[in-house]
Description:
The complex is a heterodimer of chains A (467) and B (343). By secondary structure, chain A is an all-alpha fold. Chain A is built from 21 helices and two strands. Chain A is globular, with a radius of gyration of 23 Å. The mean pLDDT of chain B is 90. In chain B, helix 3 (112-125) crosses helix 4 (141-154).
Amino acid sequence: MAVATGVLGSLAAWLVVMHRFPGRDIFAWALALPLAAPAFAVAYAYADLFDVAGDLRIWMRAALGFDLPFEMRTIPGAAFVLTCAFYPYVYLAMRAAFVNQSAHALEAARALGCSPAQAFLRVAMPLARPALAAGVALAVMETLADYGAVQFLAVQTLTTGVVRAWFVFGSLTSAAQFALPLLGAAALLLWIERWGRGGRGYESANARWRPLPVTALSGAAGALAALFCLALITLGLLLPAGWLAAAFLDVSPDWPRLIEAGGNSLTLAVAGAVVTVALAAALALGASRVPLLARLASLGYSTPGAVMAIGLLVPAAVVWRLAPGAAQGFGAGLIMLIYAYAARLMAAALEPIDAGLSRVTPSMVQAARTLGRSAPGAAWSIQLPIARGALFTAGLVVFIDILKELPATLILRPFNFDTLAVIADNYARDERLAQAGWPALLIVLIALPAVIWLTRKIAASRPGAPA
Amino acid sequence: MTNVAALTVQAVSKAYGTRAAVVAADLTLQRGRITCLLGPSGCGKSTLLRLIAGLEVPDAGEIFADGRRLSWGGDAIAPEDRGIGLVFQDYALFPHMTALQNVAFGLRDMPARQRRDRAQAMLEAVQLGARGGAWPHALSGGEQQRVALARALARAPSILLLDEPFSGLDAHLKGEVRLSLTEALRAAGATVLVVTHDAREALLMADDLALMHGGRIIQSGAPRDCYLDPVSPDAARLLGEVNLIPGQVRGGLAHTPFGAVTATRCADGPAVVMVRPEGLRLAEAGAPAHVAQVRFGGGYHEVQLTAEGQRAHAHVAGSAPQAGQTVMVRIEPDLARVFPAGS
């Protein structure tokens, strides 16, 4: 899975950044669109599409006289699904790395006698190696944290172990036993990812940005490149979403339940985004004084949602005991849940906010001070307005992630509080996949505009240009 | 003329970790005058500026303005409460505000209308009255600097600090910017401290000059006095090209391969003679020197000379000797100083 995301994501990024072929400008952002599809939705679609007793296989057996030699509900099947869902993490990291590379380094390699292919292999790839490590680490982290997809595909992972230990056996201790090695693996991945980021020193910060040398792919090569990109998007988003729509939209859903869950999902995602961004902004502004603080807060990102939720159950129990009333319990549960989201997604929000704040030079803040503003006043009138776009971006990232989040929501949500992800999972577990199609598709529909906005913005961003 | 101190820095020190940035610095700014603080990069002059602005807290020493203590060892009044303006090296214009909004930023206490009028007037004072609606990135470097200046002056600060005002500018713009800057500062009647590493601009702009080296203020005084009578070879080097020629003092005369010069302040023994390039003159009679190289430098020729294994360079106006010639040279006493060896 890690290898597959690495190869596919890097190849796509290399094609899009360094070549010109039909549809390149669209693929540049569309390749990240599968981020809108939760992994469990992709799993539902493929499991149904390739079901042994499904229409496709029955038709193939009858018409072609042979059966497909694979099964979705296996480890390779799950790896396929997760690769489709998570390759965009590698793609985005590698694309950023290639775009940020100084054209001068590549041109210097050419002047020193390398062919374009050699320049790519000997200069561009080694320079992008940290980004590759970071992107793959992110994809693997998401895999570790995934619950909905692997659960549905009947693959046992540590995360399903954590959730099952809690729900089936009601045992916090055995849940914690699953959670500990998971946390260890996640910490290792976080270290790899940070190491990859440390490699930012490879980028020349003050080299003037110039367009990278772009190779035009014509004819068959161009068609092949376009086909490859199209295939990735199809496998990651178009096919699963399309299949879910085609197969299940004629099923009339439980509308009241769906609408309530949709409202809950939206409310949680918006509230979570606002809280997380506010905390992250405060943290980013304070981080210049206490650098360790931001690093500590970022630790949550590697913590799988299930582990985070289990860890929060103990303080949650205290809160529930203090506020025994149903209403207070409900509120306390929601606060716990938003806290879990904020803790887990803090790093994801911090990154764009830090980038946005880095556009404010120290001298701008100091200028505001010498012009009569206090330190908080300067933050309010200078730093936050300049980083406005970054704050919005951070909010969208958190919003999308909360929409798709499942395990932490399952464990921490107040009684009878459903989100779209939760009811999709409920239906799927009850073998009522047809009913799960609607909520899964709704998530894609709500997340898609946000993802499009984000990826277009990312695709348009270049070093040196105002973001 | 009576000089009134607008700001006094007394024995101020500041260290970052084990690295001392400013060491027991003393500095006085006279009211209504332009003081230039000249030093090489990394000598601590920007730190001293930041200490005066209140952006840094001194480890020891005190800073007073108008009888009010602004900073003292370990603590300081916040920068926003000092009434000291600062124009940053990178101008630090706020990119999300127009030129006019930038200038109005510091005028929060005024009603909106008055605020806008005052900001507009400040922009007009720096000849940018028509550019108020422009965004900072649409302004040229010189225009950005003038907006930054108007922004700092709008609050009528008692003291204005300028950090390296010439560093971001093309060489041919420097003179122009210096003139318009000096004019605007004189018009505002401001007390000004300019930090720079550009000796030429400092000499031309300063009413008073302070030389900084290795975290210390090594000399202060009128620009001419500093140039002609530097207290040490370091001070001499700060203000322009200089020849440092080893020699021997005997009986009140310092003898070098390029000639002798009176040395009243030095005891007999080894010494270093400092000569400005224009103070090494070709003459009818003097010490013989070999012409190693001649380069045309615009208003003068730069002539590389060797004598008895020593090298020196001279700026020669008018007709220049040929390379390979032997010429007679002498040292102009007004442009030379003798220091004890090892200073």
